[in-house]
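This part of the workshop introduces the protein records we will be handling. A record pairs a protein's sequence with a compact description of its fold. Comparing a sequence with its tokens is the quickest way to learn the format. The record below serves as our worked example for the rest of this section:
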Amino acid sequence: TSKGLIAKELGDTKLSTQVFNAGPAAIEALNAGAIDATYIGPNPAINSYVKSKGESISIIAGAASGGAQLVVKPEITSAADLKGKILSSPQLGGTQDVALRAWLGDQGFKTNTDGSGDVNINPTENAQSLKLFQDGKLDGAWLPEPWASRLVLEAGAKVLVDEKDLWENGDFTTTILIVNKKFAAEHPETVKALLKGHVESVNWLNSASASEKATTINAVLKDTAGKPLPANVIERALQNIKFTTDPLAGTYNKLLEDGVKAGTTQKADI
């Protein structure tokens, strides 16, 4: 973070960061040893755990709950209106992709991982989804923050489904912190320091004022993405997210079931 809390705890261990559009790409890098830890949605982490029979990753903490929505063209007012429409998610097998496919299945729609079916799902990079929606080439998208807010505020989308309404007490995990299991076994002190810095970061996010958070987030975005976000986008996004170190492990069996239903995960016991 731009507060430097993680780097401070890591001491002499150099912290290098990399940005991924979505979880499956981050998992690929983690499993290949290109990165040692990542903030990620739960579904790609569960998928990796299942595929490797528990050998690939360790979940060390939660990071965020909430902040995922299905946003659509204003003329779409119900699930029934989605038949034959084109929707996007950040990446095939990602947490929002699985949530979208599972929810559509619950509405009686059939979807396929190749994009065919009653509703066409085209996994697309978030920035591209915004542009396609603005150009009228996309009917909606199930996205994490701040992208859901960007489509609403910058492109006139409206919320059809707020994912928190689908979970008991509105608690569902959108981001967790995981480490490569081999790295954790070889460098336990580094992982301990990473976790301490992460906990301090979450505590700061929960105690800082809205303007402090916005300033810090925009400083990071300017460094990583080249430009900051408008104040109203950050404000709306932060209202939808709860920062927490609780990984909400009680939700993982449902997430696994959804992944199996979506056709992106194998059946397993976790």
In short: The chain has two domains: 5-66+171-262, 68-169. The domain at 5-66+171-262 is CATH 3.40.190.10 (D-Maltodextrin-Binding Protein; domain 2). The CA atoms of residues 31 and 56 lie 7 Å apart. DSSP finds eleven helices and nine strands in the chain.
